[in-house]
## 1
Amino acid sequence: MKLKLLPPDSKVWAPRQWLSCALPFTIFIFMLLFYLTREKLNLFSQVEPGLKSGELHCLGPDKLPGQMVRPFRKSLTTEGDLQLPQFLDGWRKLVMLLDPLGTLFTFATQEASEKLSVLESYSQGPYSTHYHTFSAMADWEQDPSKHSSGLHTLVLLHRALHWAQLCLGGIARVQNANVGALCREAYQSVLGPHHTWLIRQAANLAFLAFPGQSQILELVCPGDSEQEAQEALSRVAGMLEAVYNRTQGLLAERGLLT
């Protein structure tokens, strides 16, 4: 007896044929989704050239706040000391940052520029080897036979740095801040006691014409959102505070705080 093979029933084979076609297609779709997801992640993880991962745009190497933060950070590389060339470089960038922000900032930066020129003349003069670090300068100038004023000049810059740190930190931290009142309070606490009555009155008038918070944030980080600018300014103020604290400790150890 011969068995007769029946032709395959299309209803029976159709699911198998569909499965055999669908499996490669499904694999292709998964591979495509994986590729697109990876490309999207790569796109989001890219940072502007020169920026470190997680670094704010405003703190990049081609932006003034970033150019200021870097030398100040380098000035702290030696534990228990202050690298003066990097400190002065950071201060020069700080002057450039503050100068466009208003009349009182301009007054403060002009005064700071004069002090910076004094210290730079020492660090580039015949006794430059004694002006590479705070400790070397202090050892050199505390010799009674020396008459240089590097330490006194540094104390004046130290106070101005503290005022800038408090003022910028407040602008970064306080929402809808009254910038004039905030920076006036910092001035009265830090710089005012060391100024004449006439200078204090002029400063109080200048605070009345201070630019608003939004304007300052735009000047510091042009093109960035207010939130990003505040975060960048907060980090700037944090670096100034670190430099201030290091210098404060060094001056206190030498009995140079007045």
## 2
Amino acid sequence: MNRSSNMAIKVGLLSGLLLLGAERQVLASEEHKVARNDQQADLDLFAMYFSDENLVEVTSRVPQPLPRVAENYSIVTAEQIEAMGVHSVDEVLSQLPGMIVTFNHRNFGDFGTYRTHGLGFIDAPHVLLLIDGVRLNPPSQARAETNGIPLQIIKRIEVIKGPASSVWGSSLGGVINIITKDTGKTVTPRVTMSASGGEANTQDYNADIAARVGHLSYYLYAGRQDSQGLRNDRWFANNRLYGKLETALGDATKIGLALGSSNPEYLEGNSVSSDTTAYRTAAHSWGSLSLETSPMTGVALHLALQSAKMDWWRQDNMLSTGAYLWAFEYADETRGGEATLAISRWPGQSIVLGAELERDEMEMRSSWDVMYPIYQEKRAVFLNDSITWGPLTVTPGLRYDHSSLIGEQTSPSLAAVYRLDETTLLRFNAGSGFAQMPLLHFLPFFNPQIKPEMIKSIQGGVETTIMAAVRFKTTLFHHGIKKTIDYNTSTNTMPIQRDGIEAEIETLELYGFSAGLNGTYIHERNRLSGRNPPLDIDGTNDDITAINLAFSYRYADLLRTRLAGHYLWQDRVEWQGFADHDCSGMLWDWTIGVMPKLFATPNLTLFGSVHNLFNNTVYFNPEKKNPERWVEAGITIKY
């Protein structure tokens, strides 16, 4: 069957579901009031765990109540991030179920490689990163580095685990959606300032302000991070700026502008074995100009222009003499626009359709002044529908992508969530997707004929509350990937299969105490030969196990404390033959915050953290060992 026939069948099936959903509205008008009450019950069901953050946007591009979302998602809020006592987005992501984050050396400012359900090898760029709707994956390498994003600007992080191509295009491994804080609501400014200091002159300074002046509201942020290096003199420095402006044009229209920039620079590391030392910078900036309007009840239109610019530079010198060896740079730029129309005029149904245009540019500059420009033009249209019949919500989706480099891709999906009773949800979703390879691989000395990786995925699970005190959620998943890319040879290789389970359990706060546990197990194998990658090794498993455990205590508004442990085991580290490594330890961090009422400032917090509390060692390279136990303290003022 040819491509056009497949496309016709997929569009026909989706159109049939849309027509079926529209037809039932003739009988649904009398049930409108009941449906609205059911939706409010949905919003209240898990409110104890998500506070007012009981909507998720990343699954369909418009806010949806959590109990009507069938995709495998995780959400972390600003309050939860603050309680973690961490300094980077990757440290936050590593504590979520289903997320596999592999750090380079865990020094202050280090970035990790994040994968959902192990999708991709350690350096594979399969997860899409968004902030304010802007794609931050650099076209050259496609792997976003998050160590430049300040945590203080984040309102919440939404994560889809598994392919999300029917909504977002190239996102074989899922999507990380960073939603920034709102602009001010009042004339009186809302201000937050924080400062912390620790060993090795490690410092983190942040300040933001939000207010409204007439029809104009704003949120502004500035911050800086510094460290002389917690281990092996791996210094780090980073200046961050961010701003958001919004203005209302009448009651139903607003225009928004968001701009951010960051300039991490750091010592990549010293290698005694190769007698080299490497310095890196990763300057990037992003911006979006958006218009949101509601021309009539139940109809919302979103228009946006977006841009991101990333410059990645590295220089290597001889460690023994300091003599210059070589340097190279990737200069990336992405520009584009999107339009999204959301229609929810009928009870129990929400339709989202949209289009995107994007242009990617990459230049590689080396120490011998050779430049390799690569360009890509992309366009896409997408459509998804959420239809509710009583306790059942079904969400079909379809997206068509066209790239000037890889041609056409069509990504369908079908998801369903069933409300078994007032405290239990059953979820199922299936879909196919793809991963756009980095533009670097289209250079003449790589492989311009390389094909995108393709995935078919099935996930199912249950989420329930037990005695209104414990929330339990588990998901089984199966991912089949074809045309897997070997990033060392820039070629498409064997099919890969990943199967596994993720589970999480968390308690409601009782007498100030609460606890949470999540775990992920993944098994990978080559479906053609039965071998586990690489092809020359038989009889070994490429299993991944990740565990996160946290205990928290809060006493009124005076004291909060948290003890959290993180464990990650990857079999590939064992059978790849690293001569000296240790991945058996569990890393524990302890944080405490005291909110004294002895001063006139109403929202003062004195906090401290002990990182790697039990002084464990986790590393896969003896020259990249994690820091030993280190301590920091700081202060936060809000008014």
## 3
Amino acid sequence: MPDRLGLPGEEASETAMHNLGYILKSAREDRDLTQTEVMRRTGINNKTLSGYENNIAEPDLTTFAQLMELYQLSADQVLGTGSSGSFVTASEQELIELYRRLPKKRRREVLEILRLITRSRPQGDE
């Protein structure tokens, strides 16, 4: 039985594995944790965590479980096996919740503003 996260034949999991680094880094940053803080809480060294966040290496199941617990995420959220099939960061979830509170007219305005921003902003600009 494989102890890695990328299990063959599971399309959603395989797709999620390509995004795992992004997901792990986003989850850590959304919780205002540094790599050093993650190391202190889990024992995972910075170089190893950096490898996970940059898709150079994959955590084993025990390490994956540690990170999910620390980041307060479920495996379904990360692997995209839940109902939505994709990972949503805490910041993205906040945007969704705020958007849903707006009246219909304001929603259209927000969408138009976001479209304008994304069109005018060069790729890679942070």
## 4
Amino acid sequence: MFNDIYNFVWGLNKKTVFLILDINFFLTLLLLQNVHVGTFTWLHSRFKI
């Protein structure tokens, strides 16, 4: 009985952890993309590339 509950909760936790990792990965990618675009824009305005 306890084992079933434990497995259920652990399964949920694993899903939640992976979901959080996915979201963090996605946000990090977005952030990196923004930084990349920002850097490019800054270089462009600074050095007229």
